[in-house]
Design goal:
72% helix; mainly alpha
Length: 76
Amino acid sequence: MDTAKQAQIKAHALALAALLYEETQQTEPEKLKTLGGIEEAIRGHMQESVNPAVANFLSQKAALGRPGAAVRLPAS
């Protein structure tokens, strides 16, 4: 991966980290007191919000290359 893409990924990851921190601070501030709590909170956020969005994006990209393939749309 080239350095420009790495820099973009790092910038987006830091922005995502700030959003997840803010959400955790508002909903489960006690989890920010220990490394285990932080890991648990971030894992939960990733599984709930981030991973499904990435999976949907990749699924749509893959379906574009296959005629007749179903495209999974995000839940509204």
